[in-house]
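In this supplementary section we document a worked example of the pipeline. Step one takes a protein sequence of length 182 as its only input; no multiple sequence alignment statistics are reported here. Step two produces a three-dimensional model, which step three serialises into C-alpha coordinates for compact storage. The input and output of this example are shown verbatim.
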Amino acid sequence: TWDILSVYFFSTHPNLSMPPKFDPNEVKVIYVRAVGGEIGATSTLAPKVGPLGLNAKKIGEDIMKATKDWKGLRITAKLLVKNRQATVEIVPSSTSLVLRALKEPPRDRKKTKNIKHDGNIPLEEIIAIARIMRFRSMARELKGTVKEILGTAFSTGCTVDGRCPKAVCDDVGAGLIAIPEK
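The serialised model returned by step three reads:
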Protein backbone atom coordinates (compact mmCIF):
# COMPACT_ATOMS: atom_id res chain seq x y z
CA THR A 1 0.00 0.00 0.00
CA TRP A 2 2.92 2.38 0.57
CA ASP A 3 3.89 2.16 -3.10
CA ILE A 4 0.39 3.12 -4.18
CA LEU A 5 0.34 6.07 -1.75
CA SER A 6 3.76 7.35 -2.87
CA VAL A 7 2.81 7.15 -6.56
CA TYR A 8 -0.41 9.01 -5.81
CA PHE A 9 1.42 11.64 -3.73
CA PHE A 10 4.14 12.35 -6.29
CA SER A 11 1.74 12.44 -9.22
CA THR A 12 -0.69 14.86 -7.55
CA HIS A 13 1.68 17.13 -5.63
CA PRO A 14 2.48 20.21 -7.81
CA ASN A 15 5.99 20.93 -6.44
CA LEU A 16 7.32 17.39 -6.82
CA SER A 17 6.55 16.87 -10.50
CA MET A 18 9.09 16.82 -13.32
CA PRO A 19 11.05 20.00 -14.04
CA PRO A 20 9.85 22.12 -16.95
CA LYS A 21 11.16 21.44 -20.44
CA PHE A 22 14.25 23.29 -21.61
CA ASP A 23 13.32 26.50 -23.46
CA PRO A 24 15.67 26.94 -26.47
CA ASN A 25 15.12 30.72 -26.65
CA GLU A 26 16.06 31.30 -23.03
CA VAL A 27 19.41 33.05 -22.52
CA LYS A 28 21.59 31.44 -19.84
CA VAL A 29 24.46 33.47 -18.38
CA ILE A 30 27.61 31.76 -17.08
CA TYR A 31 30.61 33.58 -15.61
CA VAL A 32 34.03 31.95 -15.96
CA ARG A 33 37.43 33.11 -14.72
CA ALA A 34 40.15 32.41 -17.26
CA VAL A 35 43.70 33.41 -18.12
CA GLY A 36 43.73 35.61 -21.20
CA GLY A 37 44.97 34.02 -24.39
CA GLU A 38 45.18 30.49 -22.94
CA ILE A 39 42.90 27.51 -23.31
CA GLY A 40 41.41 26.84 -19.90
CA ALA A 41 41.09 23.39 -18.40
CA THR A 42 38.07 21.68 -19.90
CA SER A 43 37.61 19.85 -16.60
CA THR A 44 36.52 23.14 -14.99
CA LEU A 45 34.31 24.17 -17.91
CA ALA A 46 32.55 20.83 -18.44
CA PRO A 47 30.34 20.88 -15.31
CA LYS A 48 29.16 24.39 -16.18
CA VAL A 49 28.45 24.03 -19.90
CA GLY A 50 27.84 20.28 -20.15
CA PRO A 51 24.24 20.32 -18.85
CA LEU A 52 23.42 22.94 -21.48
CA GLY A 53 24.52 20.59 -24.27
CA LEU A 54 27.72 22.46 -25.15
CA ASN A 55 31.19 21.16 -25.92
CA ALA A 56 33.65 22.30 -23.23
CA LYS A 57 36.66 22.18 -25.57
CA LYS A 58 34.97 24.42 -28.15
CA ILE A 59 33.90 26.89 -25.43
CA GLY A 60 37.49 26.96 -24.13
CA GLU A 61 38.75 27.83 -27.62
CA ASP A 62 36.11 30.57 -27.95
CA ILE A 63 37.21 32.06 -24.62
CA MET A 64 40.84 31.92 -25.76
CA LYS A 65 40.01 33.83 -28.97
CA ALA A 66 38.00 36.47 -27.10
CA THR A 67 40.70 37.04 -24.45
CA LYS A 68 43.78 37.15 -26.69
CA ASP A 69 44.13 40.93 -26.03
CA TRP A 70 44.41 40.18 -22.30
CA LYS A 71 47.30 37.73 -22.63
CA GLY A 72 48.61 36.50 -19.28
CA LEU A 73 45.99 38.32 -17.14
CA ARG A 74 43.21 36.62 -15.19
CA ILE A 75 39.95 37.86 -16.66
CA THR A 76 36.26 37.12 -16.19
CA ALA A 77 34.43 35.91 -19.29
CA LYS A 78 30.65 36.06 -19.56
CA LEU A 79 29.12 33.25 -21.59
CA LEU A 80 25.69 33.94 -23.08
CA VAL A 81 24.08 30.66 -24.13
CA LYS A 82 21.03 30.76 -26.36
CA ASN A 83 19.73 27.84 -28.41
CA ARG A 84 22.95 25.84 -27.72
CA GLN A 85 25.09 28.65 -29.18
CA ALA A 86 27.52 30.44 -26.87
CA THR A 87 28.85 33.96 -27.27
CA VAL A 88 31.73 35.25 -25.12
CA GLU A 89 31.91 38.73 -23.61
CA ILE A 90 34.76 40.08 -21.51
CA VAL A 91 33.93 41.55 -18.09
CA PRO A 92 37.13 43.35 -17.06
CA SER A 93 37.96 43.82 -13.40
CA SER A 94 39.71 46.89 -12.05
CA THR A 95 42.85 44.87 -11.32
CA SER A 96 43.11 43.54 -14.86
CA LEU A 97 42.56 47.04 -16.27
CA VAL A 98 45.30 48.49 -14.03
CA LEU A 99 47.71 45.69 -14.95
CA ARG A 100 46.91 46.22 -18.62
CA ALA A 101 47.60 49.96 -18.25
CA LEU A 102 51.07 49.12 -16.91
CA LYS A 103 51.86 47.67 -20.38
CA GLU A 104 53.99 44.89 -18.94
CA PRO A 105 55.14 42.17 -21.34
CA PRO A 106 53.20 38.91 -21.09
CA ARG A 107 54.80 36.44 -18.70
CA ASP A 108 54.67 32.71 -18.22
CA ARG A 109 52.53 32.17 -15.11
CA LYS A 110 54.05 28.77 -14.38
CA LYS A 111 57.66 29.97 -14.35
CA THR A 112 57.45 33.54 -12.99
CA LYS A 113 55.77 33.84 -9.58
CA ASN A 114 55.22 36.75 -7.15
CA ILE A 115 55.98 39.45 -9.70
CA LYS A 116 56.28 43.08 -8.56
CA HIS A 117 54.25 45.53 -10.63
CA ASP A 118 56.38 48.63 -10.12
CA GLY A 119 55.38 50.65 -13.16
CA ASN A 120 53.88 54.11 -13.36
CA ILE A 121 50.38 55.01 -14.59
CA PRO A 122 49.30 58.59 -15.42
CA LEU A 123 46.25 59.92 -13.56
CA GLU A 124 44.38 60.38 -16.86
CA GLU A 125 44.55 56.63 -17.42
CA ILE A 126 43.27 55.97 -13.89
CA ILE A 127 40.31 58.27 -14.67
CA ALA A 128 39.71 56.40 -17.95
CA ILE A 129 39.71 53.08 -16.07
CA ALA A 130 37.27 54.59 -13.54
CA ARG A 131 34.93 55.57 -16.39
CA ILE A 132 35.00 51.97 -17.66
CA MET A 133 34.31 50.59 -14.17
CA ARG A 134 31.71 53.24 -13.27
CA PHE A 135 28.73 50.96 -13.93
CA ARG A 136 30.04 48.38 -11.44
CA SER A 137 31.00 50.86 -8.73
CA MET A 138 28.83 51.66 -5.73
CA ALA A 139 30.23 55.20 -5.44
CA ARG A 140 27.90 58.16 -5.94
CA GLU A 141 30.34 60.20 -8.00
CA LEU A 142 33.20 59.50 -10.39
CA LYS A 143 35.56 60.79 -7.70
CA GLY A 144 34.67 57.80 -5.50
CA THR A 145 35.27 55.38 -8.38
CA VAL A 146 38.67 57.00 -9.03
CA LYS A 147 39.53 56.44 -5.37
CA GLU A 148 38.54 52.76 -5.72
CA ILE A 149 40.84 52.39 -8.74
CA LEU A 150 43.65 54.17 -6.85
CA GLY A 151 43.22 51.58 -4.08
CA THR A 152 43.57 48.83 -6.67
CA ALA A 153 46.72 50.51 -8.02
CA PHE A 154 48.12 50.63 -4.48
CA SER A 155 47.43 46.92 -3.95
CA THR A 156 49.20 46.01 -7.20
CA GLY A 157 52.26 48.04 -6.17
CA CYS A 158 52.44 50.60 -8.98
CA THR A 159 52.69 54.39 -8.76
CA VAL A 160 50.42 57.10 -10.17
CA ASP A 161 52.21 60.10 -11.73
CA GLY A 162 55.35 59.04 -9.86
CA ARG A 163 53.59 59.20 -6.47
CA CYS A 164 52.13 56.65 -4.08
CA PRO A 165 48.47 55.97 -4.98
CA LYS A 166 47.49 56.54 -1.32
CA ALA A 167 48.83 60.10 -1.45
CA VAL A 168 47.00 60.75 -4.74
CA CYS A 169 43.82 59.29 -3.18
CA ASP A 170 44.16 61.63 -0.19
CA ASP A 171 44.59 64.59 -2.57
CA VAL A 172 41.48 63.56 -4.53
CA GLY A 173 39.51 63.22 -1.28
CA ALA A 174 40.67 66.64 -0.03
CA GLY A 175 39.77 68.28 -3.36
CA LEU A 176 43.36 69.19 -4.31
CA ILE A 177 43.01 67.14 -7.51
CA ALA A 178 39.81 67.84 -9.43
CA ILE A 179 38.15 64.88 -11.13
CA PRO A 180 35.95 65.93 -14.08
CA GLU A 181 32.56 64.20 -14.23
CA LYS A 182 32.42 64.24 -18.05
